[in-house]
# Entry
Amino acid sequence: MKTKYIFGTLLATALLWSCSNDDDEANITPEQPENPSAEIIPIELSNYDNGSRVMMQTFYWDVEPRGDWWNILSEKVAVWSEAGVNRLWLPVATKGQSGGYSMGYDPSDYFDFGEYEQHGTVETRFGSRSELENLIDKAHAEDLEVIADIVINHNSGGGEEFNPYRDKNTYTLFNEENGNASGMFNRNYENFYPNSTSDYDDGSLFYPEQNLDHNQEYVQNWLWKQDNSVAKYYKNTMGFDGWRFDYVLGFEPWVVKAWLDEVGGFSVSELWDGRLEVLEAYIEETGSGVFDFSTFYKLDEAFDRLNDLSHLESKMLWQTYPEKAVTFTANHDTEKDANEDNFISEGNKLKAYAYILTHPGYPTIFYSDYENEAFQVEIQKLIKIHNSIATGDVEILYSDNDEYIMKRNGEGENPGLILYINTSDNTKRRTLKTNWTDAFLLDYTENSKFVSQADENGEASIEAPGNGYAVWSIATTGTE
Ligand code: ZN
Ligand code: ZN
# Structure
């Protein structure tokens, strides 16, 4: 079926040996080192630290509502730091309307980090303010930045009041008695659309009656301008280092730009749109990074929806804005979404990680994936590869429906790598031109046991196991 078509397209480029994937050592180690007593030793990846790291998304939808999540995370920060993480994206840290059950996306009191009795609880779903402060301290002690999830499109959980601009009662009253026990950033109908200065009504699906009007000086002062604004309080009092802006489709880009101009810090916006030009325009307008939905959807197409890896030849955000593209394979939304189009299936997840952890962009590791026992060791290996030899220009050496081979050229002493993804059932091997001459090659994911050798022209055979991937780079030789 497919195989015939593949062979037809291959002849000009490379040799393909397809062998049955039956764990037969003879199939995967056809070449022995020239000197049988020589030992092929992997290079020590940590000697090639390229300075790049990954972000951990430290939660999933429906984290257990026991108020101990900050403590659970505190126990993990040292291990994550050791694994090569440099930022923690925390769940929304302040109280939402659903109190102890709130995932935070229904923000009520921006200054209640689990210290005021309201919405039926003192602690948030994730814990108390002091437990959060302890987590932030521990993260900083491990040189991890802590990223706040900022929800400023809509509010939720205010008291009922008559709203003359809607000629009915709305839940737009936020004060000490009504969902805002901190008394900071009290709000009423005047601060939401429509109001005395704006008749805008986005009619959006989320809380349209409690949609904050960012054009108001009062709202700007409380969100980012004054000394005790949300932005400055999070940064200066709580110790947050950066921002993840929720649902930025709901408000204008200048808001994020004004926030960043005021307080700076790492920033990534959730602009849920797979179109490259939309993401690029947003980066240009705000200076903020964005979650790379362009790459996410290409990965889903290539691995799941269309089952054709040649879609990985498409243009993606990591190519045009590598410093601003925050790549990911899953998040709290995609994992709870039953929609296959917004979800990279379990069986393809590691291949998607192999992609984002070898290409440019700033990869996010999703908590549930990292903590998945079936994935953890593989993800750890890929992070080590990402933080070391995933460097230099990108060259796609080959792609077809079931194979994708990409080279990072390395830089100076850094040898770079070749990623080989294979979605067929068979082990695949190809002979290619590499940057490496007279060198032994190993797969640093250890998925392939094949020991390869690049000749004096850089020609080498590399392989990838069926339904898997390998990441090739140079090895050294030694004797026992
Ligand atoms: Zn899918
Ligand atoms: Zn193929």
User: Anything to note?
Assistant: The CA atoms of residues 394 and 408 lie 5 Å apart. The two ends are 48 Å apart (CA to CA).
